[in-house]
Amino acid sequence: MLDTPPARTRTLAARYYTDARILDREKELLLNSWQLAGHAGQLANPGDFITLSLFDQNIFLVKDRAGEIRAFYNVCPHRGHQLVTGSGNKAVLTCPYHAWTFGLDGALRGMQKRGNTDAPDRSTIGLSEIRVDRIVDFLFVNLDPDAQPMAEFAPGLEAQILACVPDLPNLVVEGDAAYGHTYSCKSNWKVMLDNYLECHHCGPAHHSFDDMMDIAQSKFDLHQNYTYQNAPTAMKADNAAFPLDLEHDVTTGQFWFLFPNTIFGQFPGAQGFYASRFDPVTPDLTERESLSLTTAVPTDPDMAERAGLRTKWSTDVVTIEDRDLCENVQKGLHQRGYTQGWYVTDPDAHDISEHAMRHFHDIYLSAMGETE
């Protein structure tokens, strides 16, 4: 557990959620922090690549011929054209514009020229590389070349995840269509994370979730730059959310938040795991980008059916409930009658306590150089 300074009683002021000038500053914070980029399972073979965008910065990750996963800015140093799109496999990286060719290590291998062509020395040119790190097999990038390694930024996080989910290294990538699915929300990215970091709203707002879970036994632990939540179910095979197989399924939810905008989780139900990144688009719009894992082999003959029912519930029920809550809050943050809220905290009742949300705000204010 983390030793925390004297607690603040007031939440972040509304301006942190609505002011475009704040988002301009947050852009640098996010670009210079560890951002979820993908999973090592997506880059199984040399030449496998994936792409992502963080604000206006385009990036790709690729496995080189030595088996190392590397990340580069997705831009040709010749004239600035994008090198690759989507995902796939390439033996070499060839720019579509002028056919400059790069190895999987980022070094320039070839360009069009003739005997009298005046062109730069190939040995002096290469792709601009970006820092890569990982937690278990989840890959992260950081545009700050001097950033702390993840093991120093969030000490103990990887070990804790593996202790709680020892089979995680054996899970395989499922995509974004499962219970950690990708979607947009008309709210600030921090509103969505505030919602994730407290269960004060779970009873009033998530009736089926409340029926499945034993929310009163939920516990949050605070650590350096991350939080952990242990959330047991009520051990009810039949509940208002989706059916649980008490022999084969996960019966205790385990969730992590990694500052600034990544979450990990093992949700109750069919065996699996997910990770999500919350990308601000505007102060009032966020895109959640997700990646789900599942078992390589089903745990039992009915696993796929139960997983499908959980996905349908996640998509059609709890996500809609949370999205409606967050979008309603975002509207409220623009009201002249609201300037700043209060925390409700209780050391013995984590089901209603908002201390994990306050911990997020404390880290955020420090990173932003703010005191309010």
UniProtKB/TrEMBL annotation:
Query: Where in this chain does the entry annotate a coiled-coil region?
Result: none
Q: Could you say which residues form the signal peptide?
A: none
Please give the InterPro entries that the UniProt record associates with this protein: ARHD_Rieske_2Fe_2S, Rieske_2Fe-2S, Rieske_2Fe-2S_sf, Ring_hydroxy_dOase_asu_C_dom, Rng_hydr_dOase-A
Q: Where is the Rieske domain?
A: 34-141
- CDD domains to which the protein is assigned, alphabetical: Rieske_RO_Alpha_N
Keywords assigned? 2Fe-2S, Iron, Iron-sulfur, Metal-binding, NAD, Oxidoreductase
What cofactor does its activity depend on?
Fe cation
Q: Name one Pfam family in it.
A: Ring_hydroxyl_A
Give the Gene Ontology MF terms in alphabetical order: 2 iron, 2 sulfur cluster binding; iron ion binding; oxidoreductase activity
| Cited PANTHER family | CHOLINE MONOOXYGENASE, CHLOROPLASTIC
Q: What is this protein called?
A: Rieske domain-containing protein
- Tell me which species this is from: Phaeobacter gallaeciensis
